[in-house]
Amino acid sequence: YAIGSRYIEEPQIVALIVLVVTAVLFMVAASITRSFERLAEANRMKSEFVSVVSHQLRSPLSNFRWAIELLMSGRIGQIEEKQLEYFKILKENSNRMKELVSDLLTVSRIETAELPTKKEECHLEDIIKDFIKEFQPFATASNVEIAFKPQLNLPKVLVDASQIKLVIENLLDNAIRYIKEPGKVEIRLERQNEQLYFEIKDTGVGIPKDDQKYIFQKFFRSENIMRHQTQGTGLGLYIARAIIEKLGGKIGFKSQEGKGSTFYFTLPIK
Question: Histidine kinase domain location, by residue (predicted)?
Answer without folding.
Answer: 52-270
